[in-house]
Amino acid sequence: MEACHSPEQFNVTSYAATAVAIVTLETFAGMWINAFIVSVICMAWFKRKTLNSNEKILLALGCSRSWFLCISWVNSLLSVIYPKHLHVHPTLQLILSIYTFLNYFSLWVSACLCVFYCIKIANFRNSFFMYLKVKIDRIVPCLLLGSVLLALAISVLAYDTAEKLHSKDRNFTCPGNFWEESMKMEKHVIHISFITGFGYTASFLAVITSALLLLFSLWRHKRNMQTNSMKDLSMDAHIKAMKSILSFFIMYSINFICLILTIIFSTKNENVMMFLVFTYVYAFPGVHSLILIFSNPKLENTLLRILPCRKLCMR
Predict the structure, then answer these.
(1) Range of 120-124, 226-230, 263-267 with top mean pLDDT
(2) Cβ-based neighbours of 246, under 8 Å, separated by 6 or more
(3) What DSSP character marks residue 222?
(4) Are the beta carbons of 110 and 206 closer than 8 angstroms?
(5) Rounded to the nearest 5°, which phi and psi values hold at 4?
(6) From the centroid of its chain, how far is CA 234?
(7) Between 174 and 270, whose confidence is greater?
(8) Can you give 288-315 as a three-state secondary structure string?
(9) What per-residue confidence (pLDDT) applies to 309?
């Protein structure tokens, strides 16, 4: 007896299967890394009943990235196994809006972390910068709240655009001016591409600005120490923060290029290019969070204590 399912439903090519396998591996690795950050910070929160600004940002970043990877993986899996189910209203609109919210929120929280490092460690005599340095612990919750509101606003716009595209697509089957409807759809695509590019560019500029300011502060501080023939402990803090932000900057540069490429190739059938782009996009949350772990002594020591125990359990 033949299966009752249509052959199109299970028409998964070797290319799609390979893509899903790689994405699944990256997703679960990234979710484990970010879940580790969240669990360590939550345990510290439970013990001390409070969190510092750095831990608040890391907690928000770990939660957003874990859910982002989860939603992205579900979307990728459904698009391969049940592609027609994504076109059932309003499944695609909901997935797109949730994906957009988590993506923008995680990007902007990452940018907030770089800005936090810059304000906390860099030394400038500017009155506005000194004000930010003093008030940084009060500014961080406002930055996180602003990131939530902005990401929510863009996710609503993404849902509205997807809804309009869905209605226009249904109108194509009706008699009318096909050229006029096509132009309207193209305008909607341009609008969402502009909004997406703006969000990516804003977070990327924040990372660039933080890296340049911290680099300039490090250079000026080092010059002053050489002139005065003195050693300062803040030099080590500058160098450590600079290494972290430079690694963020390099990864963000590649990630920014990949995100822009997703906008360019999203309307084209460039499967190989999109596969390479999404391979890095899915790996970015896990690798970046791993760098955060090794740049944080508390997280690093906790991870190093856990790994030998896991090896003993495996034996």
Answers:
(1) 120-124
(2) 211
(3) H
(4) no
(5) -80, -10
(6) 30
(7) 270
(8) HHHHHHHCCHHHHHHHHHHHHHHHHHHC
(9) 53
- Examine residue 7 and say whether the peptide bond preceding it is cis (omega within 30 degrees of 0): no
Position 38 scores a pLDDT of 94
Name the amino acid, one letter, at 236.
D
Spatial CA neighbour of 114 closest among 254, 288, 286, 259: 288
Residue ranges of domains in the chain: 16-170+185-306
Q: Which two tokens stand for residue 16?
A: 């799609």
What is the distance of C-alpha 270 from the center of its chain? Answer: 23
Q: Residue 36's pLDDT band (boundaries 50, 70, 90)?
A: very high
What's the whole-model pTM score? Answer: 0.80
Between CA 95 and CA 147 the distance in angstroms is 20
DSSP-H helix ranges across the chain: 14-48, 53-81, 91-121, 127-171, 178-228, 234-265, 271-294, 297-314
CATH of domain 16-170+185-306: 1.20.1070.10
Both structure tokens of 69:
């990877």
CA neighbor of 234 nearest in space, from 248, 217, 246 = 217
Secondary structure (DSSP) of 241-289: HHHHHHHHHHHHHHHHHHHHHHHHHTTTT-HHHHHHHHHHHHHHHHHHH
Instruction: Calculate mean pLDDT across residues 240-266.
Output: 72
What are the φ and ψ backbone dihedral angles of 45, each rounded to 5 degrees?
A: -65, -40
Q: How many CA atoms within 13 Å lie on the side-chain side of 314?
A: 6
For residues 53 and 116, give the distance between their C-alpha atoms in angstroms, rounded to a whole number: 8
Determine the Cα–Cα distance for residues 24 and 148; give it in Å rounded to an integer: 27
- How far apart, in whole angstroms, are the C-alpha atoms of residue 293 and residue 271? 34
